[in-house]
Design goal:
The complex is a heterodimer of chains A (about 300) and B (about 375).
Chain A (H helix, E strand, L loop, with lengths): L1 H31 L6 H21 L4 H28 L8 H22 L4 E2 L8 E4 L2 E4 H23 L1 H11 L1 H6 L4 H27 L1 E2 L3 H16 L4 H25 L9 H15 L14
Helix pairs in contact in A: 1-5, 1-8, 1-9, 1-10, 2-3, 2-4, 2-8, 2-9, 3-8, 5-6, 5-8, 6-8, 9-10, 9-11, 10-11
Chain B lengths: L4 H4 L2 H25 L1 H26 L8 H14 E2 L4 E2 L2 H23 L4 H21 L13 E2 L5 E2 L2 E2 L4 E3 L2 E3 L1 H25 L1 H11 L1 H6 L4 H27 L1 E2 L6 H14 L4 H30 L6 H19 L8 H8 L4 H12 L2
Antiparallel strand pairs in B: 1-2, 3-8, 4-5, 6-7
Classes of the chains: A mainly alpha (about 300), B mainly alpha (about 375).
Chain lengths: ~300, ~375
């Protein structure tokens, strides 16, 4: 029982991080129909720059309670600028190009960001200072730390805020209009390019927060962390129904739970033949299963085959 | 096709063909003398990658299906060869059995993977293939316990060289007083195979199936309305690409003598895709060009980056390896921005994309709207 509960807790924490990253994918896909391959690297840059800034502030003598939030803010700002630049340089000029061209530039951006990070921060793992002084609580035989509670609550808060933004504000209405039909949105006076830029910046801000969460949760960051994380977050977005915000949230949480429960029990289920080193496989089996049985994702509407 | 070649080509192009063939045959010796034996090896790899890229070109270039896990089929072929022709299980099956077996296994995997996903939209196929590539790699990495099958991250070494009727390509041979080292022999084998793949691709492109693929690529609904069984035809493209991948994988294992999961990461899949897209999707010449560029340039850079920095700044400022990848990434972005259809696009696509009657422009815009 306590192992089960523990895995649920770990899964929820991991899942809320996936959900934040998945939102970035799904927003861009909803509007442009583009897989933003570089999104995982934005998460990495967020974690790395938060670390660098807060380290600098700490060495200036600032207390941890001040340095870490400032580092997070700086990371959000850096990632928003990065998201804007990526869209402007690599995607906007190719909006009418053959479909694969923006995918290749996205891969190019991803490689460039990874290697820039490697030049700045080296190949080694960096220790990430804890966000808060974290106490652990007993919860029915399982352990949950303040940090984990903070991560889940922050993620939920951000998601609620995003839903409000998209469904209750003018900017949100403009975003949905562009996703529905860009040409008509223009006629209605929506500045498409502005909306797309803002979407990228919003997604990147979420990515920065997620990056800091990953760093705080695992205590380490390095230049390659964004890649597999991005892949799984995309899986989560597809699982929930790509282009659908609630779907991304649900998909992220579910994927986190499936992974953590799967990794916890695979040894027992297969009689010790397969171990927890197969953790990464689950995401993809889930993905293939979803695509076979419910291709539009859990919450996505049925999309007709369009050429 | 070959019989008709002289009629198709004029006298001048026949001359060009002869000269080109002679140059290709002499290439390993020229490279060996001028740049050293290591570069002959790199040339061999370039040929292998060209074969892979041509295989992927059938899937991506002709049928327009985005496959991001192509290297998995390469891995299946390579590991089939490695397991059946190495001391790992003490098996030493002949090449004639192992290579076709690896190719058919890859084909089988392609069908199993393609059958459920090919009825979906293209982006999903991309993600499923990507996931499949990762699954294969993770299994190769972890299937060393409790029963040791793949030897895990250490990989399988001492794989039998390609041997045909007692003639092993793994050691040097003398012909007409000329010494042919192992890498030269593999060069000729790969050159022959590459030409075979090119020939098959050429014939496919002009065939009924090839035209069906291109129809699907341009407009799947219209293709279906024309009576094409789109699912089967797409599956055929996918399986055929997988088969070529498996075949090259077998050759790779025999040539390298060693396989490990490291050779089959997502980065390799992306590299091959970049060869196809960068060179020019659907155009065989473009794909070959892409393959040559993407194998040779990074290699040249690996050898050149250190010394050049030494010369300019007196010391090595930036790690050449990461500088190489950085420039590679930048090159991908710049080439796509300047030439979105690739360096050497296929003539048919070129005409479709640049027709000046306004229809093409209009079509492109509607395609953009619909593809959201």
């Amino acid at each position: 029982m306590d192992i089960f509960l523990q895995q649920i807790i770990n899964g929820l924490v991991q899942g809320s991080i996936y959900a934040l990253v998945a939102l970035g994918y799904t927003m861009v896909y909803g509007i442009l129909g583009l897989i933003n391959f570089a999104h995982g690297e934005v998460v990495m840059i967020g974690a790395m720059s938060a670390l660098a800034v807060s380290k600098g502030l700490l060495s200036l003598g600032l207390p941890v309670v001040l340095a870490m939030p400032l580092g997070l803010l700086a990371a959000v700002a850096i990632c928003m600028a990065l998201g804007y630049t990526i869209e402007r340089v690599a995607y906007r000029p190719l909006r009418h190009a053959p479909r694969l061209a923006p995918l290749i530039t996205a891969i190019g951006v991803s490689i460039v960001l990874q290697n820039l990070a490697m030049m700045f921060w080296g190949r080694e793992y960096h220790a990430f200072p804890p966000l808060i002084t974290s106490d652990s609580h007993q919860l029915g035989g399982a352990v949950i730390s303040d940090l984990q509670i903070l991560i889940v609550l922050t993620a939920l808060l951000i998601m609620a805020g995003l839903l409000l933004l998209v469904h209750r504000t003018n900017l949100g209405r403009a975003m949905r209009a562009v996703a529905e039909n860009p040409a008509v949105a223009t006629l209605m006076g929506v500045n498409i390019n502005g909306v797309i830029s803002l979407t990228f910046m919003l997604g990147s801000a979420l990515a920065a927060v997620a990056g800091v969460m990953v760093g705080a949760n695992y205590g380490i960051v390095h230049y390659y962390m964004g890649f597999i994380l991005g892949l799984k977050a995309f899986t989560a977005a597809v699982l929930g129904g790509i282009g659908n915000l609630r779907g991304a949230m649900l998909g992220g949480l579910l994927l986190g739970l499936i992974e953590s429960l799967g990794a916890g029990y695979i040894g027992d289920l297969t009689g010790g033949f397969l171990g927890s080193n197969y953790q990464d496989v689950f995401a993809f089996f889930v993905l293939i299963g979803v695509l076979i049985f419910r291709p539009s994702g859990l919450l996505g509407e049925r999309v007709a085959e369009r050429a | 096709m070959l019989r008709r070649l002289p009629d198709i080509l004029g006298r001048r192009s026949r001359l060009a063909l002869t000269v080109g063939a002679a140059l290709l045959l002499l290439l390993p010796f020229a490279v060996d003398l001028s740049l050293g034996r290591g570069w002959v090896r790199i040339t061999d790899f370039a040929l292998l990658y060209i074969m892979l890229a041509l295989g992927l070109n059938i899937v991506v270039g002709y049928a327009g299906l985005l496959d991001l896990g192509y290297i998995a089929f390469f891995a299946v072929g390579a590991y089939t060869y490695a397991l059946l022709g190495s001391p790992q299980f003490g098996l030493h099956w002949p090449v004639w059995v192992v290579l076709p077996l690896g190719a058919s296994l890859s084909c089988l995997f392609g069908v199993l993977l393609g059958a459920p996903t090919l009825r979906l939209r293209g982006d999903y196929l991309a993600i499923v293939t990507l996931g499949f590539g990762e699954i294969i790699r993770i299994f190769l990495n972890n299937l060393n316990g409790p029963v040791n099958i793949t030897n895990g991250p250490q990989g399988i070494s001492r794989i039998d060289p390609v041997t045909v009727g007692g003639f092993s390509l793994g050691s040097a041979h003398q012909f007409a007083g000329l010494e042919f080292p192992s890498v030269h022999l593999y060069y000729y084998l790969f050159l022959g195979c590459t030409f075979l793949v090119i020939l098959v691709s050429l014939r496919l492109e002009k065939s009924r199936i090839g035209r069906a693929w291109m129809a699907i690529r341009e407009d799947e609904v219209a293709a279906e309305a024309m009576g094409i069984n789109t699912r089967n035809i797409k599956l055929l493209a996918f399986a055929m690409g997988a088969t070529f991948g498996g075949l090259s994988g077998g050759l790779f294992a025999g040539f390298q003598g060693f396989v490990s999961p490291e050779s089959f990461g997502l980065m390799e899949s992306i590299m091959i895709l970049c060869m196809v897209v960068l060179g020019g999707m659907g155009n065989i010449g473009g794909v070959v060009l892409g393959g040559v560029l993407l194998v040779l340039l990074p290699e040249a850079f690996r050898h050149g980056a250190g010394p050049v920095q030494q010369m300019l700044f007196g010391k090595i400022l930036i790690d050449p390896e990461s500088l190489r990848m950085l420039l590679f990434g930048l090159a991908l972005i710049v080439v796509m921005l300047v030439r979105p259809a690739g360096l050497w696009p296929s003539g048919r696509r070129q005409r479709e994309l640049t027709a000046d009657d306004g229809v093409a422009q209009q079509e492109q815009e509607t395609v953009y709207d619909a593809s959201r």
